[in-house]
## 1
Amino acid sequence: MLIVQKYGGTSVGDLERIQNVADRVARTAKEGNDVVVVVSAMSGETNKLLGYAEHFSADPVREEVDMLLSSGERVTAALLSIALNEMGIKAESMSGRRAGIVTDTVHTRARIEHIDPAPMRRALDAGKVVVVAGFQGVDAEGRVTTLGRGGSDLSAVAIAGALGADLCEIYTDVDGIYTTDPRIEPKAKKLERISYDEMLELASLGAKVLQNRSVELAKKLDVNLVTRSSFSDAPGTLITKEENIMEKPLVSGIALDRNQARVSLSGVVDRPGIASDIFGALAENNVNIDMIIQTLGHDGTTDLDFTVPTNELVDAKKVVDAFVANNEIKEASYDENISKVSIVGVGMKSHTGVAAKAFATMAAENINIMMISTSEIKVSMVIDEKYAELAVRALHDAYELDK
Amino acid sequence: MLIVQKYGGTSVGDLERIQNVADRVARTAKEGNDVVVVVSAMSGETNKLLGYAEHFSADPVREEVDMLLSSGERVTAALLSIALNEMGIKAESMSGRRAGIVTDTVHTRARIEHIDPAPMRRALDAGKVVVVAGFQGVDAEGRVTTLGRGGSDLSAVAIAGALGADLCEIYTDVDGIYTTDPRIEPKAKKLERISYDEMLELASLGAKVLQNRSVELAKKLDVNLVTRSSFSDAPGTLITKEENIMEKPLVSGIALDRNQARVSLSGVVDRPGIASDIFGALAENNVNIDMIIQTLGHDGTTDLDFTVPTNELVDAKKVVDAFVANNEIKEASYDENISKVSIVGVGMKSHTGVAAKAFATMAAENINIMMISTSEIKVSMVIDEKYAELAVRALHDAYELDK
């Protein structure tokens, strides 16, 4: 098998941990696999370098920030390769450039445009483990770029795609994706497999492990992603395409999002285009809208409810207040004390009654559902924040996710 | 003018010092000069990284040591560029690769093979200061290499040569080359100018400032080298070709080498090729011979005296003892308590009596001269180590170097 393994900052946090990683890579190679390793900077290193930069400038030029930060991953890559060679495993470290990773020119948050896998392929063909400095590439001009938050994961997924790897393992200090947050429901179980789309909907459950950018890229490139812990041998969670999941569970997991606020507009003048004006103005001010519900009012006006991320509520208020001042909205109210609970599962596509069971569960617990939205594989409900944990546990029970 | 400035590890030893360097570079640029800056790693950084490598291996693979160490200069280059941009000076950092520095494949002590100055030229033409990570290049395969001790100086000299720079300034914590070691003779004066050849002969006087490799390269590429201090505005010493030195002093400086030992062979069998056999065997064992004196003995045998570096004396003894065992040498004796004092000056070429004055000075101080060797621009004398300082001061006085 050709396996890409990515080790994050805590997994390579000090020299002992780098040796642990070397041991794991060596084992994988000795089992007969071709291995490409993608590494992050040692934890703390990136922040140290950023601190240096801020000594000179509150807003350091981004091209140079990239040059500065890219050194951290190079150090880890070289050290890991030294450790592997010492253990008798032939290894070669590569910068992002040498690994053929070409990006656009948006420094500090560049996007990978393409990968020339030839140098990696040559090293693999020579029987070497390839150790790639993650998080970095070069633009068409040859200047070093970095990929922003979660960048090393993107490097790993893109490399796995370019090489047609069988697996892309993302090692962190968390051992996989759970049916729900184990801090809320201790009976939560680790998932063996989950589809890309479910993972994207369950983002909050994977927040500490994977960014959606990486899952989206894995889906696009058809890369089998595994999230596992570098501190144990427990198998992780495989994130793959739906076809690869034989027994499709009705519901895979319960996600909770506390960072939503509700905006309720009542008495919205019913003129053509008013909704588009309101949401257009919100978009212009970079406010992200999640759920929307429109109901016809009693007097020819409409009521409009929607949710926004809590930290964008201030901006949303400014926009809405302008419409109130123009008498196009009678009244606006805001509620930060809400939570969004979501039930996610590909099985919903072919089974009815999943949503009904959710509503019945809420009713049995006397939890009022303020808003509902559904997609092919998801049912989301907005409820009073104080019932959030109760709702998660009740739903986890109702769909027997602990079984 | 196009000026290349190189700042060593102590000159960029911490963030305040990097800001000082930025101030100096900014001043040079604002005076209307095109500036290329070559920087070392912050002092201590390279040793820290080497320590990391040694955690994993007593003899880490050299390719990876280069990958590891090359990150240090990149960090300094990026930080200096950030500081310059913040001051309103457009600047761009470049790795050795981007600066077009191509080396052979001898990792950890590579030789520069050629430089493609196009990227630096483009940046200069765009009105930018170019900040190059010193000490590094890439081999023809595209792998990072480092240049060994004094490598950043070599980078600077080679870049100055490739760009046809007017000046290559080497900044350290020493403000130039002196007529002799000021710790021995406080009246030593800083030299304004000195020729490449004199500098090479006076190596010990520049030991803390410049390695001979850099001076040789500057001579080959016809680069005007200046050594100055980054901690003062004092003008440094210009090292240039002889034609650029108008008033050629008879003697430019007095060098002292304490790390020589004398090997005296008496009763060497007088067969053809015996000297060649002895020196051949020494060369095979990597013993460097400096001075040689051969004298005809009383009984058809010869006496052979030569000097070797003190740290090679053990190896020299082994070789010589084998000849003694073969009865080709009657007796061998060794003396570590010697020093070599040298008088260097291009003026000697056209003036007689320089050597005679040296011998007279030694005689006046009752210092016995054990061995003498001369070249066009140098007179070297081996004397008892205990008279070394006295000899230096007496010669400094005799040639009026304090005037």
Note: The first helix of chain A runs from residue 15 to 30.
## 2
Amino acid sequence: MTSIRIYDLTGRDDRRPSPFCWRIKYALAHKGLPFEAVPVALTDIPTLCGGGHKAVPIIEDGSKSVSDSWAIADYLDEAYPDRPRLFSSRAERELCRFVEISLFLSAGTDLFRIYVKDIYDLVLEKDRDYFRKTREARLGRTLEEAYAGREARLDAARAGFESFRLTLQKGGPFLSGGGGPFLSGERPGYADYIVGGFLLWIGSVATVPLLRADDPLLAWFERVRDLHGGLGRTSPMNPIAA
Amino acid sequence: MTSIRIYDLTGRDDRRPSPFCWRIKYALAHKGLPFEAVPVALTDIPTLCGGGHKAVPIIEDGSKSVSDSWAIADYLDEAYPDRPRLFSSRAERELCRFVEISLFLSAGTDLFRIYVKDIYDLVLEKDRDYFRKTREARLGRTLEEAYAGREARLDAARAGFESFRLTLQKGGPFLSGGGGPFLSGERPGYADYIVGGFLLWIGSVATVPLLRADDPLLAWFERVRDLHGGLGRTSPMNPIAA
């Protein structure tokens, strides 16, 4: 089997910030498919695979290239049906979309503002102007304005992970089942890769730790980092908790 | 096949408020299992099935009785494996738990306060003192205090459903797939029954409609009410939208 190539957004010091690339690296490992992660700059994306792809991840599998993390996940289950599935049913896929949407609504927007300046500081030199211009347009303010006073907003962002904490918790207000060790139950699944990839993004740039040292998410996150031969430890990370 | 009996919380005018009973009635219908919904008073629960059950739903299947909606759902998939499954995998079950937890965190607590007085007004006469005492203890305030000024809090509660709206939406900020017609994709699943049962609870009591008339959730909710021969139209409801 030839190795699948995944174009993986890179920053300074070989940091790999993209949460969407992380989930696909986990998806490839979950399916036992050998892959090569090729570091790319943000501004080089339009030149990859003959052009036409707007964002990473992009995978190249032989002569075929696919972008968009959901399209890639679907492709992998279709092209490699005999490998462990990412989604055992359409319902499971749609519920993973709900996980992504919940995560972005409850924590994503807040965290982007809190960490966007940290991301910028680790962006490759050639990407810096493009990053600042596009992200400031999206935020409607400068990176420095988004970042100002962020310590006061961290607690609200932390609270945005409460539904994941409770899903992993045994007992408590939601008594039936649960207890992890993974969001997907006894074995890790795509929901773990979505949320884990999100925390790997934060960890790859954060100069202020996201989680408190006693956050029950931390044990789960360390488990996710250990998966697939320690995939979540293969690029530089700052402390995620303190 | 003998009919399964489900003890179903009832209020005045044969209203059926319990969201947990609703999801199990849908689960039974989903599996094609004939059932009889037996109306019960809140204060009669301890006398049912020889005692020992703290809450409804309780099902009786031959000589076996099971309570707790998650335990019942698991029982139904185990006892009737050849019928359509509620959960195609352990991951799908855990993700449905995440749906429940997200729903309760983002909207449940707010809505309980907003509608608790409406619930009380439709509680059976024999349950009224018990309901007021236990619910006021849980709320840390009187039912009237919880209810005061509720119109001002409705918009925040409505916003708590945003992740479900976006999951059902085709296109928009989350582009890949989706578009419903159900939360579980092309066919309804347990996640639809959890959220649908929750809205049936609100609808069974609400004297102020929860949703705006242009809420995209509404079309989905009407679809869920139509399922399984119009199961969601089998007890009196107030308008859910205006």
Note: Chain A has two domains: 4-79, 90-233.
